[in-house]
Amino acid sequence: MRVVGITGGAGAGKTTWARQWEAKGIPVLFADQIGREVVAKGTPVLRALVATFGRSILTPNERLNRLKVGQWVFGHPLALRRLNQLTHPAMRSIIEARLRFLRGRGYPMAVVEAALLFEMGLQRSVDEVWSVVAGERERLRRLVWLRQTPPQTFKVRERWQDAWRRMRCQLSSQGFMKRAHRVMVADRKPAAPILPRSRKPTR
Q1: What does residue 42 show for φ and ψ, rounded to 5 degrees?
Q2: Cα(27)–Cα(107) distance, rounded to whole angstroms?
Q3: Between 143 and which of 4, 57, 84, 163 could a Cys-Cys bridge form, CB atoms 3.0 to 4.6 Å apart?
């Protein structure tokens, strides 16, 4: 089974690309969805997060307050590193198990969509890495105005600051491009065609 990893920074458009594959009947594993699974109420990972960061990260109904955690860790590199150390192994284990299941069912192709594909070590679980990139201004616009966060949650200035912090914690567009077999430029619609790299990507 051929496995393609689709990655890119926040707001770059990688999920939109992955959804196009999904619409064609190709199984897509979305790392963000799996991340929600591993921190669901009552899971070992959530208990580990509470032990590390305290009960203030929980909502009144004992679920992870992802918005609050995100606001905090994206401004504190050590906290973000610890969060990733606690969540990534479980996420990677689930992704690899589901890829094995799909392979056993005879699927010819599967896609893994993950912003932190390299940080999670998933480049070793895929056959090709496709990076989706877009300019910073366009990514900021998407993060501030197009995401599903209710407008009343943040003031506009706070949303810009939150989006900027998230972008600063990830690889640059150049970093994603260097490590990719193929690159998709998604600054505009229709998106530019996938550009095959002329040399082996940097791992």
Answers
A1: 90, 0
A2: 8
A3: 163
Contact 11, 140 (CB under 8 A): yes
Under 8 Å between Cβ of 171 and 118: yes
% of the chain with per-residue pLDDT over 70: 80
Going by C-alpha positions, the residue among 105, 5, 88, 92 that lies closest to residue 45 is 88
Taking the domains of the chain in order of start, what are their residue ranges? 2-196
3-state secondary structure of 58: strand
Work out whether strand 182-185 and strand 128-133 pair parallel, antiparallel, or are unpaired: parallel
**pTM for this entry:** 0.83
With 0-12 / 13-18 / 19 or more C-beta atoms within 10 angstroms meaning exposed / middle / buried, residue 57 is: buried
Instruction: Tell me which CATH homologous superfamily contains domain 2-196.
Output: P-loop containing nucleotide triphosphate hydrolases (3.40.50.300)
